[in-house]
Amino acid sequence: MLGSDEARSLHADHPPIDLHADTLMWSRWIGYDLHKAHEPPLWRAALGGHVDLPRMRDGGMAAQFFGLVSLPLADRVKGMARVVHEQIDALEAQMANKPGAVRLVRKAGELEKTLHDGALGALLGIEGAHALEGDLDNVTTFARRGVRYLGFLHFSANEAGFPAYGKGRRDDSGLTRWGFELVEKCEDEGVLVDLAHVNKAGFLDACRVAKKPPIVSHTGVLGAFEHWRNIDDAQLRAVADKGGVVGVIFCPRFVGGDGLEPVVKHMKHILNVVGEEAAALGSDWDGFIVPTRELQDPRGLPLLTDALLKAGVSRGAVGKILHDNVMRVLDEA
């Protein structure tokens, strides 16, 4: 097992929760089995093969948020809701194959009971409001199936607003009227508002009207590395002021280099700007990325814990990054 005894001890007390992996996309496409220990099929763990239950256990994890991905082509969103449902179906089928190994959870208390019973937790988040197909009632439908966050944008504009990068990008335009209604609908249904991929104007709009904590499920921060994918200090403060969390991505392209040091740099920038309550893990495993070499899968998480401690981050703050901050947001939402 990787990592020091201290890291293992910290994971026992604060088992990591990661805010974003696209694994169920692969389960839907090619029948990827969460119960089997995999090795990534491509050199340097490119693209996929990152997350499964055995490696989550090896990394001392509590739970994984699985992103539900649909990719609208030629502006066609019809059928996108079905794609999301099929990924949830894939998870439910895998849970039925080996009852008791992993449970779909919605609340912090449910996750605590799941861990007490020796199982791992799965939580769900949708990537892109185009999956709603313009119907706010789909928020209710997905919430009833266990979805806990909704990413408003992905790589194309939709009824809610405009992406930070991609088709239909409009940097000066914020949330649409429907987007503001969507914030309210999500909060009414206990669905977290996820601002990953949202342009800055829409991002700040959502934070301004939010009554419950928003999240950014997977991102870097501009104060640590200049890249279009990353958010600035004003955005960090806007999320933190509402009690939300920001998951740091594990992709070298976005954090400014390979290895643990760039990831730690982004974490420490969040701590320095808004304090200990806002930082979290947002790997983007299985999401068409080449991950940081030590974090190619969950087995490497104790190495990140060691790197944070070595960089002077307190044990208490590391526990919040790994586990406590996300649990608090689940409770508050």
Short description:
The protein has 333 residues and is of the alpha/beta class. The protein contains 13 helices and 9 strands. Strands 1, 2, 3, 4, 5 and 6 form a 6-stranded parallel beta sheet that branches. Strands 7-8-9 form a 3-stranded parallel beta sheet.
Fold and architecture overview:
There is one protein chain. This protein is α/β, with parallel strands linked by helices and 333 residues long. It has one domain: Metal-dependent hydrolases (TIM Barrel, Alpha-Beta Barrel). 41% of the residues lie in helices and 13% in strands. The strands form 2 sheets. Strands 1, 2, 3, 4, 5 and 6 form a 6-stranded parallel β-sheet that branches. Helix 9 (233-241) links the parallel strand 7 and strand 8. Helix 2 (23-30) crosses helix 4 and helix 11 (260-274) packs across helix 12. It is globular. It starts with a helix and ends with a helix.
Unreliable sequence segments: none
| Largest β sheet strand count, sense and barrel closure | 6 strands, parallel
- What is the CATH architecture assignment? Alpha-Beta Barrel
β-sheet strand percentage: 5-15%
The structural class is: alpha/beta
Q: Using only CA atoms, what is the Rg?
A: 18 Å
- At CATH level 3, the topology is TIM Barrel
Order of helices and strands: HEHHEHEHEHEHEHEHEHHEHH
How many beta-strand segments?
9
Q: What is the total domain count?
A: 1
Give the termini distance in whole angstroms.
35 Å
Report helical residue fraction.
40-55%
The fourth-level CATH homologous superfamily is Metal-dependent hydrolases
C-alpha geometry:
globular
The level-1 CATH class: Alpha Beta
Q: Count helical runs.
A: 13
Average pLDDT confidence is 95
